[in-house]
Amino acid sequence: MAMHIIDLPAWAVERGRGLNDFPALTAAGRTALVNIDMQNAFVADGGAFAGPHARDIIGVVNALSAAMRLIGAPVIWTRATHAAEGPFASPAWQYDLSRPEIAAGVAALQAGAEGHALHPAMEVAPGDTVIDKYRYGAFSCPAGRLAKALEEVGAEMVVITGVATNCCCETTAREANMAGYKVIFAADATASLTDEEHNAALLNLRLNFADVRSTAELLAMARAVQNE
Fold this sequence. Notes:
Strand content: 15-25%
Order of helices and strands: HEHHHEHEHEHEHEH
Number of strands: 6
Oligomer: single chain
Radius of gyration: 17 Å
Mean pLDDT: 96
Number of helices: 9
Strand order of the largest sheet: 3-2-1-4-5-6
Shape: globular
Distance between the termini: 36 Å
Low-confidence stretches: none
């Protein structure tokens, strides 16, 4: 396995505690798990944006999803989606389709493409919610589906897993914080292409936008809710 080597300095954890310190999950039903973009394009071997670290988090994302369901926490899966036209389309300048790697990535994320589907190893339950998002940050998405889903269940806290740590995961975490949600970011259930990118995102998030916790801590927090 090629798990990320996490390097989050103690001084950053301590400084960040003044803004975001969540040693317990909110009451059952008030915490939502948001699994970001665990799709074939990012996770499958040979996927357009795939790296080894994404495959390494499959087990922990599934474990957290199961634990959250046990305490009545909604589990939401997002799918990065590219629309060529219409209200959800990205700005025309944003992707240079003359570059083969960009064109392949865009094609992989169109609805119906193999790359767009959630990876088959992801254990998606019938009661889970799956939403398409058309921007890196789910709250910036013009479809507004994540914000609506969280409002419908009365969520106050979001736990974030998925890929990529420093892109869609980080952007959504920052937006969630600014939207008034308590945010917990799962350090070892998120993945990027390199340790450097992963740790840079964790540092920024811990300082200002989120509490950064391990899967083991989050599972213990879920068990504590069960035992209440």
